[in-house]
Every structure is written in structure tokens, then in C-alpha cells.
Backbone:
């Protein structure tokens, strides 16, 4: 996939992050793309749903619904923030071969492990993604620390 398309799909993930923030949640968003089409989108809804597991990537995969293994093998998962262990595990479980990350300065998941397991990891270091997280971490440090397990 081209860098231009990666930026366009990351913009969709950023829009999801902004939805989460507007709902009173943590501004992390994700989209799942197969064959150039968004088939799932989601945002971190742990706060809104009182959930232990609704990270953006998990919400996105849930909203994509049941897919065939062959579909996942053609997919790219976009996330505004580096996926945590749980979300990285879902990437490996479903055989998603490519993950595009908006930023990993605020939090870095097991990126090396994903790569060792054959996942192509693209780091955009996107200004919008960095700013969303920096602003949120400053405004809501206790909620941020809860989400990342501190």
C-alpha cells in the first residue's frame, strides 16, 4: 500500500480517536482495511462502556464482524497508537499481516515481537496522533495511567 493511502486510512483512525474523546473516552482510534476498503472501525471505549477490553483495535475488530481467515490475511490494521499486548495478540491470532501505527512515543507496545512474528509494522509518527495523546495525557493523567495499567 502506498504512503498516501496509509495517511488517508490513518486519517480515518484519527477521526475515530476524536469520536472517543468527544464521548469522554481515551482518544485512540483504529480501522481495518481489506482490499483498499474500510471494513471495520472503532475507538477506545473502555470508559464509555465500563469495559476492560474495548481498546480501539478490539472495538474495530468487533465492529468488522466475523471474517474469513483469508480476509484477515489481506488486511491492514491502522491504529493511532502502538497496539498493546492484548491488541497485538489479536493481530497475531487473526493473522493480520500489516499494522500501521500513528505514533509510539506516548506508548510502545510489543512492536519487535510483532515483527519477529512476521507482521509488517509501519510507523507514521503522525503529528495529529502525537498531539491527541499529549493533550489527553496532560488533561487526564489518572485515566491514561488506568488505561495503560499503571
Residues:
Amino acid at each position: 500500500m502506498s504512503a498516501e493511502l496509509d495517511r488517508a486510512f490513518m486519517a480515518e483512525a484519527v477521526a475515530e480517536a476524536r469520536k472517543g474523546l468527544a464521548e469522554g473516552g481515551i482518544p485512540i482510534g483504529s480501522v481495518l482495511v481489506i482490499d483498499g476498503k474500510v471494513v471495520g472501525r472503532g475507538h477506545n471505549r473502555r470508559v464509555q462502556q465500563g469495559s476492560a477490553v474495548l481498546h480501539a483495535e478490539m472495538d474495530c475488530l468487533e465492529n468488522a464482524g466475523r471474517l474469513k481467515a483469508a480476509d484477515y490475511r489481506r488486511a491492514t490494521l491502522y491504529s493511532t497508537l502502538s497496539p498493546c499486548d492484548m491488541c497485538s495478540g489479536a493481530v497475531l491470532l487473526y493473522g493480520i499481516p500489516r499494522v500501521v501505527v500513528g505514533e509510539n512515543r506516548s506508548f510502545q507496545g510489543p512492536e519487535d515481537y510483532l515483527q519477529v512474528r512476521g507482521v509488517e509494522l509501519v510507523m507514521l509518527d503522525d503529528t495529529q496522533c502525537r498531539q491527541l495523546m499529549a493533550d489527553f495525557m496532560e488533561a487526564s493523567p489518572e485515566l491514561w495511567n488506568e488505561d495503560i495499567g499503571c
Notes: The first strand starts at residue 29 and ends at 34. Residues 3-22 form the longest helix (20 residues). The mean pLDDT is 95.
